[in-house]
Each structure stands twice: as C-alpha cells, then as structure tokens.
Write a structure and sequence with these properties.
Layout: H1 2-46, H2 52-61, H3 63-94, E1 103-105, H4 107-117, H5 119-122, E2 132-136, E3 143-145, H6 147-170, E4 182-190, E5 195-202, H7 209-214, H8 232-243, E6 247-253, E7 257-265
Parallel strand pairs: 2-4
Antiparallel strand pairs: 1-3, 4-5, 5-7, 6-7
C-alpha cells in the first residue's frame, strides 16, 4: 500500500503542472474570446453593410452560432480542467507519503477527498440509482493522526458500503423504483475522553451471523472471486488499533445495512 501510495502521488505530481498550465491559459482564452466578440459587435454597429464576400463568409460559418457556442466550449473546458485539478489534489492528499510522524489533520477533508475519488462509483448505473451520501459532521479540532493510512481505511469502508448497496439492488432488498442507496457519515468528539468518533453506515444488504464472525479473519471475503482480497478490514483494523491506538467495530443485520464505528484518540499518546 505504501508503494502504491508513492506511485499515485508521483503520477499526480507529474500531471499537476501541465493541468495548471492548461487551466491558466484557459482563463486567458476566455478573456480573449470575449474581446473578439465585443470587437465583432462594434464592427456590426459601425459597418452594418460589409462587402459581399464578408457577408457570404458570415453566413457560411454561421457567426451567430459561433458567438453563442464558442464561449460555452471554453467554459466547459475550464470546468473540466478545474475538475481534473481537483481530482489531482485529492489523489495527492489521499496518498500522502509523509506518514513517518503523526500530523495534525482535518479529518473531514480526508473523508471528502476519499469520496471525491470514489465519485464515479456513487453515480447512477443501469442496475441502481445514484447513491446518496449524507454527512453529519460534528465540530472537530485537528486530529493528530497518520492521514495516508487513515484515508485507506475510509476508502475500504466506503468501497464495502457501495458493494453492499449494489448487492441489495441485485437481490431486490432495495427497489429500483422506491429506494435509494444511502451512506451516512457522522463524526463527533467525546470531550471528556478526547476521542474522535467516526460512524459510517449504509442501507445495504447487511451481513449474516456467519460472515460477522469471520469478518476479522485475514484472507476471508464474502465477495465473489476476483472482487475481494479479504485484506481490507484486516488492514483497516491494524491501521486503527495498532497505528493510532484506537478501536473499530461494527453492527450489521441482514436486509438492514451495516454501521462501522471508529474511535481515535485526539492526540497520539506516544507522541504527546
């Protein structure tokens, strides 16, 4: 996972410079386009009867359509490039390599970054409507943690929640016409114990008693062959319990969904 994080961060860094170059030039292109349009309108105002050749060219290229459409093309390119820049930022933030020491981190930013990377999986598909994400964020101070590994935990839990919701639609636990997949994220601070609590709940298919009893076993997975490795929860538990001195547990019922609880000390005792 560490090597993969370094690879992703390196690729994101290399892409970042040309994307920023394109984004900066699109700002100028938008301004220049508007200047040309304004100049053309001045020509129309003061020279309403141009030469025949000019009139023919205006009709040939459909100048009214160009004046309306070209700024929209520039605007779409600008929005798309900004979206790409945002994704690059998210990848760099998600795969932070400076995890040798705990850092003061905005935990909500890590959650939002992970959700942005998974946005393509939250959109509607032919098998289900879009998955709704409900954020109930508490007022939290900066958390002393290892942000890269913690983001990996979020990625695993969100990915599992999406899988469970998709399975619910496939097995008709959720109706395509009446139901929506939902992931609810709650954060809170227990001030007396200085512990941050993160709850991630879904309304997916849930787990049987057999799966719940075996879920912590390394290499065990309830997913089809080729889809799950059986390492996700095992690694997540190691990151939360061993690396952060916290705790992770869950509740689940078939047909009612699953809720994971994570507790992390606000300050890492070994470093305080």
């Amino acid at each position: 996972m560490s090597s993969l994080g370094e690879l992703v961060a390196g690729i994101a860094h290399e892409i970042n410079n040309p994307v920023n170059f394109i984004l900066g030039n699109l700002n100028h292109a938008s301004e220049y386009t508007q200047n040309f349009i304004d100049l053309f309108h001045l020509y129309q105002k003061y020279y309403p009867n141009p030469q025949v050749e000019i009139t023919q060219k205006i009709d040939e290229i459909d100048i009214d359509f160009l004046i309306e459409d070209f700024p929209q093309i520039i605007s779409s390119m600008h929005k798309g490039t900004k979206r790409l820049a945002q994704m690059i930022y998210s990848l760099r933030h998600f795969s932070r390599r400076d995890d040798s020491l705990a850092q003061l981190t905005n935990i909500h930013e890590g959650i939002d970054t992970t959700l942005l990377i998974l946005q393509y999986r939250l959109k509607d598909t032919s098998d289900r409507p879009a998955i709704q994400v409900i954020k109930e964020y508490g007022k939290l101070p900066l958390l002393e943690c290892f942000p890269g590994p913690l983001n990996q935990v979020f990625m695993n839990l969100f990915g599992n929640a999406i899988d469970a919701i998709e399975e619910s639609f496939l097995t008709s636990h959720l109706s395509l016409l009446e139901d929506k997949g939902k992931i609810t994220i709650c954060t809170d601070l227990e001030e007396q114990s200085s512990v941050v609590t993160i709850k991630i709940a879904d309304n997916g298919i849930g787990m049987t008693e057999e799966i719940k009893q075996r879920l912590s076993e390394p290499m065990f997975t309830s997913k089809p062959i080729g889809k799950g490795t059986g390492l996700g929860l095992s690694i997540s538990r190691q990151i939360i319990e061993e690396k952060h001195g916290g705790a992770i547990w869950f509740t689940s019922n078939v047909g009612q969904g699953t809720e994971f609880w994570i507790e992390i000390p606000l300050i890492q005792r070994s470093l305080s």
